[in-house]
Amino acid sequence: MAGSIMGSMTGWRRFAAVWMLAAGMILALGTGPSVAQSRAHVYLLRGLLNIFSLGMDTLAEELNRRGVYATVHNHTEWQSLADSAAAKYKAGTEGPIIIIGHSLGADAVMEMSAYLGQKGVPVALAVPFDGTQSFSASGNIARVLNLTQRNYAYMRKGAGFRGSLVNVDVSSDPSIDHLNIDKSPRLHARVISEVLSIVGSHRMPAPGTTVPRPTKVNSPQVNSPQLNSPSGNGGTSAPVAPAKPEVTPAAPAPAKTGDGATNATDLKPVADSGTPVIALPERNAPARIETPTAPPPVHKPAAPVSAAVQVPN
After folding, report:
1. Is the domain covering 39-199 a CATH 3.30.420.10 domain?
2. Weakest mean pLDDT among 70-74, 218-222, 294-298
3. Which of 73, 187, 236, 303 is at a distance of 20 to 30 A from 169, taking alpha carbons?
Protein backbone atom coordinates (compact mmCIF):
# COMPACT_ATOMS: atom_id res chain seq x y z
CA MET A 1 0.00 0.00 0.00
CA ALA A 2 2.73 2.42 1.00
CA GLY A 3 4.74 1.46 -2.07
CA SER A 4 1.90 2.32 -4.41
CA ILE A 5 1.43 5.68 -2.72
CA MET A 6 5.14 6.48 -3.04
CA GLY A 7 5.07 5.42 -6.71
CA SER A 8 2.13 7.68 -7.49
CA MET A 9 3.84 10.62 -5.77
CA THR A 10 7.01 10.05 -7.75
CA GLY A 11 5.04 9.95 -11.00
CA TRP A 12 3.26 13.16 -10.11
CA ARG A 13 6.55 14.92 -9.41
CA ARG A 14 7.93 13.80 -12.75
CA PHE A 15 4.81 15.10 -14.52
CA ALA A 16 5.07 18.46 -12.74
CA ALA A 17 8.75 18.76 -13.64
CA VAL A 18 8.07 18.00 -17.30
CA TRP A 19 5.20 20.49 -17.38
CA MET A 20 7.33 23.24 -15.84
CA LEU A 21 10.12 22.55 -18.34
CA ALA A 22 7.70 22.73 -21.27
CA ALA A 23 6.20 25.97 -19.97
CA GLY A 24 9.66 27.49 -19.64
CA MET A 25 10.55 26.53 -23.20
CA ILE A 26 7.33 28.07 -24.51
CA LEU A 27 8.03 31.31 -22.68
CA ALA A 28 11.61 31.39 -23.93
CA LEU A 29 10.55 30.85 -27.53
CA GLY A 30 7.75 33.37 -27.23
CA THR A 31 10.12 36.13 -26.13
CA GLY A 32 13.09 35.21 -28.32
CA PRO A 33 14.36 37.24 -31.29
CA SER A 34 12.82 34.81 -33.77
CA VAL A 35 9.37 36.23 -33.08
CA ALA A 36 10.48 39.80 -32.42
CA GLN A 37 9.40 42.35 -35.00
CA SER A 38 12.10 43.26 -37.47
CA ARG A 39 13.36 46.83 -37.74
CA ALA A 40 13.35 48.74 -41.00
CA HIS A 41 16.78 49.99 -42.06
CA VAL A 42 17.48 52.82 -44.50
CA TYR A 43 21.02 52.77 -45.91
CA LEU A 44 22.18 56.14 -47.28
CA LEU A 45 25.30 56.16 -49.48
CA ARG A 46 27.42 59.27 -50.10
CA GLY A 47 29.27 59.92 -53.33
CA LEU A 48 32.87 60.86 -54.11
CA LEU A 49 35.15 61.57 -51.12
CA ASN A 50 32.21 61.93 -48.72
CA ILE A 51 32.10 65.70 -49.30
CA PHE A 52 29.65 66.19 -52.19
CA SER A 53 26.68 64.28 -50.82
CA LEU A 54 25.96 65.82 -47.42
CA GLY A 55 22.28 65.89 -48.31
CA MET A 56 22.32 62.21 -47.40
CA ASP A 57 23.25 63.18 -43.82
CA THR A 58 20.37 65.65 -43.66
CA LEU A 59 17.93 63.07 -45.02
CA ALA A 60 19.12 60.52 -42.45
CA GLU A 61 18.51 63.01 -39.62
CA GLU A 62 15.00 63.73 -40.93
CA LEU A 63 14.19 60.01 -41.06
CA ASN A 64 15.59 59.28 -37.60
CA ARG A 65 13.50 62.11 -36.15
CA ARG A 66 10.47 60.26 -37.52
CA GLY A 67 11.47 57.01 -35.86
CA VAL A 68 13.00 55.37 -38.94
CA TYR A 69 16.42 53.81 -38.40
CA ALA A 70 18.75 55.36 -41.00
CA THR A 71 22.55 55.21 -41.31
CA VAL A 72 25.00 57.02 -43.65
CA HIS A 73 27.99 55.34 -45.32
CA ASN A 74 30.52 55.81 -48.08
CA HIS A 75 29.54 54.29 -51.42
CA THR A 76 32.60 52.03 -51.39
CA GLU A 77 31.16 50.08 -48.43
CA TRP A 78 28.11 48.81 -50.28
CA GLN A 79 29.18 45.15 -50.50
CA SER A 80 30.04 44.76 -46.80
CA LEU A 81 26.83 46.57 -45.93
CA ALA A 82 24.88 44.16 -48.13
CA ASP A 83 26.47 41.13 -46.45
CA SER A 84 25.53 42.47 -43.02
CA ALA A 85 22.01 43.39 -44.16
CA ALA A 86 21.44 39.93 -45.65
CA ALA A 87 22.52 38.21 -42.43
CA LYS A 88 20.27 40.40 -40.31
CA TYR A 89 17.34 39.97 -42.68
CA LYS A 90 17.63 36.19 -42.62
CA ALA A 91 17.87 36.30 -38.82
CA GLY A 92 14.58 38.18 -38.75
CA THR A 93 15.95 41.32 -37.11
CA GLU A 94 16.08 43.65 -40.10
CA GLY A 95 13.57 44.56 -42.76
CA PRO A 96 12.23 46.09 -44.86
CA ILE A 97 15.50 47.26 -46.46
CA ILE A 98 15.65 50.65 -48.20
CA ILE A 99 18.72 52.00 -50.04
CA ILE A 100 19.27 55.66 -51.01
CA GLY A 101 22.37 57.27 -52.52
CA HIS A 102 23.75 60.26 -54.44
CA SER A 103 26.08 60.35 -57.46
CA LEU A 104 28.47 57.40 -57.11
CA GLY A 105 26.33 56.48 -54.13
CA ALA A 106 23.36 56.31 -56.49
CA ASP A 107 25.27 53.82 -58.65
CA ALA A 108 26.03 51.84 -55.48
CA VAL A 109 22.29 51.76 -54.69
CA MET A 110 21.63 49.71 -57.80
CA GLU A 111 24.73 47.51 -57.33
CA MET A 112 23.92 46.80 -53.68
CA SER A 113 20.33 45.98 -54.57
CA ALA A 114 21.39 43.51 -57.26
CA TYR A 115 23.90 41.90 -54.88
CA LEU A 116 21.18 41.43 -52.25
CA GLY A 117 19.04 39.84 -54.96
CA GLN A 118 21.72 37.22 -55.50
CA LYS A 119 21.44 36.40 -51.80
CA GLY A 120 17.65 36.13 -51.99
CA VAL A 121 17.04 39.32 -49.98
CA PRO A 122 14.33 41.75 -51.17
CA VAL A 123 14.80 45.51 -51.35
CA ALA A 124 11.62 47.45 -50.61
CA LEU A 125 12.75 50.78 -52.10
CA ALA A 126 15.79 51.97 -54.09
CA VAL A 127 16.26 55.74 -54.52
CA PRO A 128 19.20 56.90 -56.67
CA PHE A 129 19.86 60.66 -56.61
CA ASP A 130 21.41 61.55 -59.99
CA GLY A 131 23.58 58.52 -60.69
CA THR A 132 26.40 58.60 -63.20
CA GLN A 133 25.00 55.90 -65.51
CA SER A 134 21.96 53.80 -66.30
CA PHE A 135 21.31 50.47 -64.56
CA SER A 136 18.85 47.63 -64.96
CA ALA A 137 16.67 47.17 -61.88
CA SER A 138 17.06 43.67 -60.44
CA GLY A 139 14.05 41.47 -59.82
CA ASN A 140 14.27 41.69 -56.00
CA ILE A 141 13.48 45.43 -55.92
CA ALA A 142 9.86 46.31 -55.19
CA ARG A 143 10.12 49.97 -56.20
CA VAL A 144 12.72 52.23 -57.87
CA LEU A 145 12.39 56.02 -57.53
CA ASN A 146 15.13 57.53 -59.71
CA LEU A 147 15.65 61.27 -59.18
CA THR A 148 17.90 62.67 -61.90
CA GLN A 149 18.69 65.62 -64.14
CA ARG A 150 20.59 63.48 -66.66
CA ASN A 151 18.69 61.76 -69.43
CA TYR A 152 21.42 59.14 -69.78
CA ALA A 153 21.00 58.09 -66.13
CA TYR A 154 17.47 56.73 -66.44
CA MET A 155 16.96 53.37 -64.77
CA ARG A 156 15.31 50.55 -66.74
CA LYS A 157 13.59 47.27 -65.93
CA GLY A 158 15.88 44.27 -65.75
CA ALA A 159 15.16 40.57 -66.15
CA GLY A 160 12.57 39.38 -63.68
CA PHE A 161 11.69 42.88 -62.47
CA ARG A 162 8.02 43.02 -61.49
CA GLY A 163 8.01 46.13 -59.32
CA SER A 164 7.35 49.79 -60.11
CA LEU A 165 9.97 52.05 -61.67
CA VAL A 166 9.75 55.83 -61.93
CA ASN A 167 12.35 58.14 -63.48
CA VAL A 168 11.78 61.68 -62.20
CA ASP A 169 13.63 64.12 -64.48
CA VAL A 170 14.22 67.52 -62.85
CA SER A 171 16.46 68.88 -65.62
CA SER A 172 13.91 71.56 -66.47
CA ASP A 173 14.39 73.13 -63.03
CA PRO A 174 17.38 75.51 -63.40
CA SER A 175 17.85 75.72 -59.61
CA ILE A 176 18.77 72.00 -59.34
CA ASP A 177 22.08 70.56 -60.50
CA HIS A 178 24.23 67.54 -59.71
CA LEU A 179 25.83 69.11 -56.64
CA ASN A 180 22.62 70.14 -54.88
CA ILE A 181 19.99 67.66 -56.05
CA ASP A 182 20.63 65.58 -52.92
CA LYS A 183 19.86 68.62 -50.73
CA SER A 184 16.55 69.68 -52.29
CA PRO A 185 13.88 69.90 -49.54
CA ARG A 186 11.21 69.24 -52.17
CA LEU A 187 12.82 65.95 -53.18
CA HIS A 188 13.54 65.08 -49.55
CA ALA A 189 9.84 65.48 -48.76
CA ARG A 190 8.92 63.08 -51.55
CA VAL A 191 11.48 60.47 -50.46
CA ILE A 192 10.39 60.69 -46.80
CA SER A 193 6.79 60.16 -47.85
CA GLU A 194 7.77 57.07 -49.84
CA VAL A 195 9.83 55.67 -46.94
CA LEU A 196 7.11 56.20 -44.33
CA SER A 197 4.54 54.48 -46.54
CA ILE A 198 6.77 51.39 -46.61
CA VAL A 199 8.16 51.03 -43.09
CA GLY A 200 4.77 51.10 -41.37
CA SER A 201 5.22 49.88 -37.81
CA HIS A 202 8.82 48.72 -38.36
CA ARG A 203 10.19 51.88 -36.78
CA MET A 204 12.83 52.35 -34.15
CA PRO A 205 15.04 55.41 -33.65
CA ALA A 206 18.78 54.99 -34.01
CA PRO A 207 20.76 54.60 -30.75
CA GLY A 208 21.37 57.98 -29.15
CA THR A 209 18.76 59.72 -31.31
CA THR A 210 16.42 61.99 -29.41
CA VAL A 211 12.94 62.24 -30.85
CA PRO A 212 11.63 65.76 -30.21
CA ARG A 213 8.47 66.04 -28.15
CA PRO A 214 6.02 68.93 -28.06
CA THR A 215 6.67 71.39 -25.22
CA LYS A 216 3.73 72.46 -23.11
CA VAL A 217 3.43 76.24 -22.96
CA ASN A 218 1.33 77.77 -20.18
CA SER A 219 -1.02 80.56 -21.15
CA PRO A 220 0.12 83.96 -19.81
CA GLN A 221 -1.78 85.53 -16.91
CA VAL A 222 -3.70 88.69 -17.73
CA ASN A 223 -3.56 91.64 -15.32
CA SER A 224 -7.08 92.94 -15.06
CA PRO A 225 -8.56 95.51 -12.67
CA GLN A 226 -11.20 92.94 -11.82
CA LEU A 227 -8.57 90.73 -10.20
CA ASN A 228 -7.74 93.38 -7.56
CA SER A 229 -11.22 94.71 -6.94
CA PRO A 230 -13.35 93.21 -4.15
CA SER A 231 -16.29 91.19 -5.34
CA GLY A 232 -18.51 92.04 -2.45
CA ASN A 233 -18.21 88.66 -0.71
CA GLY A 234 -15.64 89.43 1.95
CA GLY A 235 -13.13 91.05 -0.37
CA THR A 236 -12.40 87.89 -2.31
CA SER A 237 -11.33 88.48 -5.90
CA ALA A 238 -13.37 86.73 -8.55
CA PRO A 239 -11.33 84.25 -10.61
CA VAL A 240 -10.74 85.30 -14.17
CA ALA A 241 -9.88 82.75 -16.84
CA PRO A 242 -6.46 83.36 -18.44
CA ALA A 243 -6.62 84.82 -21.89
CA LYS A 244 -5.83 82.52 -24.76
CA PRO A 245 -2.74 83.49 -26.77
CA GLU A 246 -3.47 84.87 -30.18
CA VAL A 247 -2.73 82.58 -33.06
CA THR A 248 -1.29 84.37 -36.02
CA PRO A 249 -2.25 82.72 -39.30
CA ALA A 250 0.69 81.32 -41.20
CA ALA A 251 1.93 83.41 -44.08
CA PRO A 252 1.41 81.90 -47.51
CA ALA A 253 4.34 79.85 -48.80
CA PRO A 254 6.61 81.58 -51.33
CA ALA A 255 6.23 80.68 -54.95
CA LYS A 256 9.65 79.08 -55.24
CA THR A 257 13.03 79.24 -53.53
CA GLY A 258 16.46 79.17 -55.05
CA ASP A 259 16.78 75.41 -54.71
CA GLY A 260 13.42 74.53 -56.17
CA ALA A 261 12.14 73.40 -52.76
CA THR A 262 8.82 75.13 -52.51
CA ASN A 263 5.90 75.39 -54.88
CA ALA A 264 6.14 71.62 -55.15
CA THR A 265 3.75 70.93 -57.95
CA ASP A 266 2.83 67.26 -57.86
CA LEU A 267 4.89 65.35 -60.36
CA LYS A 268 2.52 63.43 -62.60
CA PRO A 269 4.24 60.42 -64.14
CA VAL A 270 2.84 59.31 -67.45
CA ALA A 271 3.53 55.73 -68.46
CA ASP A 272 3.97 54.59 -72.02
CA SER A 273 3.97 51.02 -73.21
CA GLY A 274 6.81 48.87 -71.90
CA THR A 275 9.17 51.70 -70.90
CA PRO A 276 9.96 53.17 -67.50
CA VAL A 277 7.76 55.98 -66.30
CA ILE A 278 9.19 59.42 -66.98
CA ALA A 279 7.98 62.23 -64.74
CA LEU A 280 8.86 65.76 -65.80
CA PRO A 281 8.40 68.53 -63.24
CA GLU A 282 5.91 71.08 -64.26
CA ARG A 283 7.27 74.58 -64.59
CA ASN A 284 5.20 77.51 -63.51
CA ALA A 285 3.75 79.47 -66.38
CA PRO A 286 4.42 83.24 -66.17
CA ALA A 287 1.61 85.12 -64.62
CA ARG A 288 -0.58 86.93 -67.13
CA ILE A 289 -0.90 90.61 -66.37
CA GLU A 290 -4.32 91.99 -67.04
CA THR A 291 -4.21 95.55 -68.45
CA PRO A 292 -7.15 97.53 -67.13
CA THR A 293 -9.42 98.72 -69.91
CA ALA A 294 -10.29 102.41 -69.93
CA PRO A 295 -13.99 103.04 -69.30
CA PRO A 296 -15.99 104.01 -72.38
CA PRO A 297 -16.49 107.75 -72.85
CA VAL A 298 -19.67 109.14 -71.43
CA HIS A 299 -21.64 111.18 -73.96
CA LYS A 300 -23.39 114.11 -72.37
CA PRO A 301 -26.41 115.55 -74.15
CA ALA A 302 -25.77 118.95 -75.73
CA ALA A 303 -27.30 121.93 -74.01
CA PRO A 304 -30.50 123.10 -75.79
CA VAL A 305 -30.06 126.13 -77.97
CA SER A 306 -32.35 128.94 -76.91
CA ALA A 307 -34.39 130.27 -79.76
CA ALA A 308 -34.10 134.04 -80.33
CA VAL A 309 -37.18 135.82 -79.09
CA GLN A 310 -38.11 138.82 -81.15
CA VAL A 311 -39.67 141.64 -79.21
CA PRO A 312 -42.04 143.75 -81.31
CA ASN A 313 -41.08 147.40 -81.55
Report:
1. no
2. 218-222
3. 73
